[in-house]
Structure to design on (510 residues):
C-alpha cells in the first residue's frame, strides 16, 4: 500500500495528471464552443483545414504527416489547434539563439580538424559519408584513433571503471538514465574520489529518462554534497509543451580528451545484467581512444553550455596535453544529431550505409519502427542481392512498441530481408556493420523518436578493425535467435492485423 501511494504521488505521475487535466479542459472548452459559440467553432474547423494543407506542404516525413492528418480530420474541432501547439519543432527565439551558439562553438572548435578528402583511398562512398557528417553535423573524421567494441554492457562497464581510475584532468558523464545500484554507485565512488584529487567532474542526465530512477533535485543535491558539477536536461514541467518531446538520449563518457565511450548502455544495473527485467539484456558499446575522443569531449561541452547557459570559455584548455600514436585504427567519426536543426543526421547515416552496401547489411536494434525511406532502402538492398539481416528483441520492454515493431516485419520479409528475434531476452544495441568496411555504434534506435525528436550520438567507422568485431558479435548473436518467417508474419488473426495497421498509422506520434 505504501509503495502504491508513493507511486501515485511521484513527480512523474503528478506531472502526467496535470497535463492530462489541461488536455481535458481544452477539449471540453472547444466542444463547448461548438454548442454556444458558432463563430469560434467555425474558426477552429477552418484552422484544422489550414493545418492539413500546412502539413501536406511541409518538408517532413510522410508517415508523420499521415499520423497528424488522420486525427485532425477525425476531430476537426480541436485537431488543428493541437497540431499548431504540438505538431512541429518550432523554436522560440531564445532556443534558436542558444542552438546557434552551440553550432558556432562546434564549428569553431572542430572546424580545423575537417579532413573528409583523406578517405579517398577507400572510395568515393566513404568520402561522401564523411563529408556529409562534417558539413551537416560539424563532426570531423579522424585517423590516429583506436576503437574497442564491447558486445555486452558488463564488459564495457569493467573497462569504464578502469579508465575512470586513470583520469587526471576531467571526467564528463552524459546519460539518458542514471539509477542507484551497483553500476552507478561504483562509478559515483570513483567520481567522488576524483573530485577530491582536483579532477573536474561533470554529470548530466535527462530529467524524463531518469524521472523514476532519481529524486527530483538530484543534480543540485549531488553538487552540494560532493562537489560534482551536475545538471538535468530539459526538466519536466506540468505544462503542455512541445519541448517535452526533445530528450537527451545521448550516452557519452569522456575522460581527459583522450578516451571516450558511447553505445546503448545507460548507467543502471539492467544494462550490465545485475538486475533482470526482460530476460538477458543484450547491449553494446564502443571505446574511442586518440584524436576522435576530442570530438566527443566537445560534444559534451557544447551540450553542457546549452543546458547551463554559459559561453563555454576556452575549449583549448580541455585539449589533451600530448598527442599519442594510435595509427592503424582506420577512420573514426563520432557524430551527434540535434532534433532542432531539421537535419535528420542519424537517419541519413543509416540510409547511406544501407544504400551503399554491396554484400551485406547487419543491423541490431531494439525497435524496428521504420518510415517509408528506411523501409524502401532496406527492401531495395535486399532485392538487389545484398544480405540484409536484422536482430530485434524477443522479450519486449514495451508491449505496444513491440507489437508495432512486429507490424513492420511483413513488407521487409517479402522483399528478402531476414529478421531474427533474440530469444534469451531484450536487445538494446544499436549497431550496423556493412561489407566489412563500414560500421556504426551509438544511441540511435530505428524509431521516430530517436531519428527525429531526440538528441543522439554515435560513432561511424570506416576501415576500422572493430568493424569485424561488430560483425562477429552479430553472427554469434544469430545463434541465440529465432528467425521469423514470412509465413509466421502472415499467420495472424484479423483483429491483430487491424491493430497493427492502426499502430503503423500512428507510429510517428508514439
Amino acid at each position: 500500500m505504501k509503495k502504491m501511494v508513493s507511486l501515485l504521488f511521484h513527480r512523474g505521475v503528478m506531472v502526467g495528471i496535470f497535463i492530462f487535466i489541461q488536455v481535458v479542459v481544452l477539449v471540453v472548452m472547444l466542444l463547448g464552443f461548438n454548442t454556444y459559440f458558432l463563430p469560434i467553432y467555425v474558426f477552429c474547423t477552418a484552422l484544422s483545414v489550414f493545418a492539413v494543407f500546412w502539413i501536406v506542404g511541409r518538408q517532413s516525413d510522410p508517415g508523420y504527416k499521415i499520423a497528424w492528418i488522420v486525427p485532425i480530420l477525425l476531430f476537426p474541432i480541436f485537431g488543428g489547434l493541437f497540431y499548431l501547439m504540438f505538431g512541429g519543432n518550432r523554436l522560440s527565439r531564445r532556443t534558436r539563439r542558444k542552438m546557434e551558439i552551440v553550432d558556432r562553438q562546434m564549428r569553431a572548435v572542430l572546424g580545423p580538424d575537417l579532413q573528409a578528402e583523406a578517405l579517398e583511398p577507400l572510395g568515393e562512398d566513404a568520402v561522401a559519408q564523411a563529408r556529409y557528417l562534417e558539413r551537416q553535423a560539424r563532426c570531423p573524421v579522424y585517423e590516429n584513433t583506436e576503437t574497442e567494441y564491447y558486445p555486452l554492457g558488463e564488459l564495457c562497464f569493467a573497462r569504464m571503471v578502469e579508465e575512470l581510475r586513470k583520469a587526471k584532468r576531467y571526467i564528463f558523464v552524459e546519460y539518458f538514465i542514471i539509477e542507484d545500484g551497483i553500476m552507478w554507485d561504483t562509478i559515483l565512488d570513483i567520481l567522488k574520489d576524483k573530485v577530491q584529487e582536483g579532477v573536474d567532474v561533470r554529470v548530466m542526465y535527462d530529467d524524463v529518462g531518469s524521472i523514476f530512477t532519481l529524486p527530483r533535485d538530484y543534480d543540485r543535491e549531488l553538487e552540494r554534497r560532493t562537489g560534482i558539477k551536475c545538471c538535468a536536461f530539459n526538466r519536466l514541467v506540468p505544462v503542455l509543451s512541445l519541448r517535452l518531446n526533445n530528450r537527451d538520449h545521448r550516452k557519452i563518457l569522456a575522460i581527459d580528451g583522450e578516451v571516450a565511450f558511447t553505445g546503448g548502455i545507460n548507467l543502471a544495473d539492467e544494462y550490465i545484467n545485475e538486475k533482470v527485467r526482460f530476460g538477458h539484456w543484450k547491449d553494446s558499446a564502443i571505446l574511442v581512444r586518440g584524436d576522435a575522443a576530442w570530438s566527443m569531449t566537445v560534444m559534451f561541452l557544447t551540450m553542457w553550455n546549452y543546458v547551463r547557459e554559459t559561453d563555454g570559455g576556452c575549449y583549448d584548455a580541455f585539449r589533451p596535453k600530448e598527442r599519442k600514436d594510435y595509427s592503424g585504427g582506420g577512420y573514426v567519426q563520432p557524430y551527434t544529431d540535434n532534433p532542432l536543426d531539421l537535419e535528420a543526421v542519424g537517419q541519413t547515416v543509416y540510409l547511406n550505409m544501407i544504400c551503399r552496401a554491396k554484400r551485406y547489411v547487419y543491423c541490431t536494434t531494439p525497435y524496428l519502427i521504420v518510415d517509408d525511406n528506411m523501409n524502401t532502402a532496406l527492401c531495395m538492398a535486399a532485392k538487389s542481392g545484398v544480405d540484409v539481416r536484422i536482430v530485434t528483441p524477443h522479450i519486449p520492454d514495451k508491449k505496444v512498441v513491440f507489437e508495432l515493431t512486429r507490424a513492420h516485419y511483413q513488407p521487409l520479409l517479402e522483399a528478402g530481408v531476414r529478421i531474427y528475434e533474440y530469444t534469451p531476452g531484450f536487445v538494446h544495441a544499436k549497431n550496423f556493420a556493412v561489407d566489412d568496411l563500414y560500421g556504426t555504434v551509438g544511441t540511435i534506435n530505428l524509431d521516430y523518436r530517436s531519428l527525429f525528436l531526440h538528441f543522439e550520438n554515435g560513432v561511424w567507422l570506416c576501415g576500422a578493425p572493430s568493424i569485424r568485431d561488430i560483425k562477429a558479435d552479430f553472427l554469434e548473436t544469430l545463434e541465440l535467435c529465432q528467425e521469423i518467417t514470412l509465413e509466421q508474419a502472415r499467420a495472424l488473426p484479423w483483429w491483430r492485423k487491424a491493430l497493427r495497421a492502426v499502430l503503423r498509422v500512428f507510429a510517428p506520434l508514439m
Q: What stands out?
A: The domain at 93-329 is CATH 3.30.870.10 (Endonuclease; Chain A).
